[in-house]
């Protein structure tokens, strides 16, 4: 545009909003900074946010039209180059020249210092895109002229966009006039200078120096500038369009990449670049900070002072093929990523759908290449392989997570996340995936919240090592952000939390243990401590952090244990109550877990909860210890007479396991045996087998005296050869004991008895009959007392079901069990009858008023095709041959 602009001072300065009146479809949003050259603002229009750059016209003779035409040509040439954002609108007026382009939130300079920080493969991916962009631009004859980190935009998924093509800026500068550099190129005020050395002329021309002699130029942007003569204005014939070369852009890009790979260290400021031109400065020290040897060679070549020694962008891509840039950058990834910037733009839900369909292929391409170049393959298990390249797909996924609308899209995104997590390092999972999972834990869809809990648990379980900076991630971040789930309004969400909270507690404990096992001595705090004192300090610190962790988990566990929905409590019992015992320790396991669990048997309606209690009690008791025996005794006795037979079976199985662990005292065992032995003739085969198993376990754990004096006398009435004790088989053998049992009580008789109201009277009658038989001489028929009419009816019914004198003996052996079960069943029946669903719906209780329509199902004409208004008018006529149906709109 001409360096003479630097010496012109405006007569009046207007804010950028003043010039936005030239764009009626744009509304000022915020100021992005202004310099003497251009005023920059962010504005809103119907398509979104845009960047507006304003050049205030202070002299109508400025040759702006050629610059406008050149920018228009660049826009047309770059319309199919995906890594560029040229100016889309160009407007000239008497007051200003205005440039408009799409707004992109972040530039590469800001991204370098933003968490999560870019890793090596991401930086190489950015460099690859920039070289591809320059190659495509240069092939079209377009040169940028001012490449720097501020002009390299980057999306949230690391797609690079080169902006602000500077064809309107001067190609050549004078080393003895820093004002030109400050005016046109130092817009950020960082004083970084990435302009190619060949663009600097050694001294100002004599003619130019003479014409500028009356102007006082200040290098400071805020300095006082004296007015210049009109001869300093550049005219159209002075504009040179072919001065920029590919080598100039290559040098600027090399400097930008050097800053990128050295975490923000600038290779040149303006004075250093001038010294570099004269040979008095070398950026060798900065370049040596680059860890990647291939990228170091690449950047060194790009930053050569000799323009002829620099290669083209295409040549650099070819040289670094399969070196700095992996093979899949060229053959797959770049073309694949271009799909997501194609026009028409895809919605976030559409992007997730495509990514879900392609993720397996992406993983296959990247991991196959990485395995092919890997020297040591430590494992063939894909879950243990950490893929460096798959990190590039993580931002593509996370960038759209917050914008997803449909439940299915969010579930697909979580599925993709779980798939990728198997190949990602712990740092990537914690820094890049975890925040988005925590965000989705408050999603409006319950299904999504359930999937988040499962995904979070699975991803955290993959982490095998942790840095010291992440050691407190559970107590400080994860658990506080998940605490609301225990009070979630959706039952399935609370069930999912109950299902996974034990796993989360295990992982939290493992994180804490890894932190202290891998902890290195702190030279500052541990300098005055010997090894013994340091170990004691670490132990105290560990116990303190463990206690804090336990308190956080306890809050959620206590809420889940007392949840109003039994399904939540049942899930917690089934999916990790024993692991929670290990996490809390013996004391809290008893106080927190067992104290809540024993209340579950009071629920007479939910048999599944009672069953889950007996499944879980063994694990809790085995960890808490024999101290819980007095508490468990009445609970186990209650389980043996439950109204549901499969609960009885579970209670017997729990007794067997407790007996194996020697968790029941001998006195307790004797009491329970007295109630368990009659179940050997129970009609349910599973109960009989479980009872045999329990008795065999007790026999194996008891001494000979106890077996012979206590156990065998209990068993004799239930065995086939009880008349001769010498024929009694070994009680310790489950199979032998099972085959020695008498036939069970018939099922039909058992079911009739547990529902019989006069069961006590029947027992009294059967006892009298037994006494009569016992006092009758052998060979003589017993003399029975005549029964009452009601009792005789019951007895005849039982005889018709196959009751014999032997069955009467069995009924009396099961007397106590039958009475307790009958009482519980009667209570359950009375409770259920009081709450019985009659099948009627009270329309007055509905939240909306239903509309009633009458449809005749018996008619000669097809009324389904008629409007409902016609049917309503004919209702009275055809009501006697029709039926009334009610439906709700």
UniProtKB/TrEMBL annotation:
GO BP annotations listed: late endosome to vacuole transport; macroautophagy; protein targeting to vacuole
Coiled coil, from the record: none
SUPFAM superfamilies referenced in this protein's UniProt entry, alphabetically: ARM repeat, Protein kinase-like (PK-like)
Residues annotated as domain Protein kinase: 26-329
Keyword Aminoacyl-tRNA synthetase: no
Cited InterPro entries: 2AA_helical, ARM-like, ARM-type_fold, HEAT_type_2, Kinase-like_dom_sf, Prot_kinase_dom, Ser/Thr_kinase_AS, Vps15-like
Enzyme's top EC category: transferase
Protein name: non-specific serine/threonine protein kinase
Organism: Larinioides sclopetarius
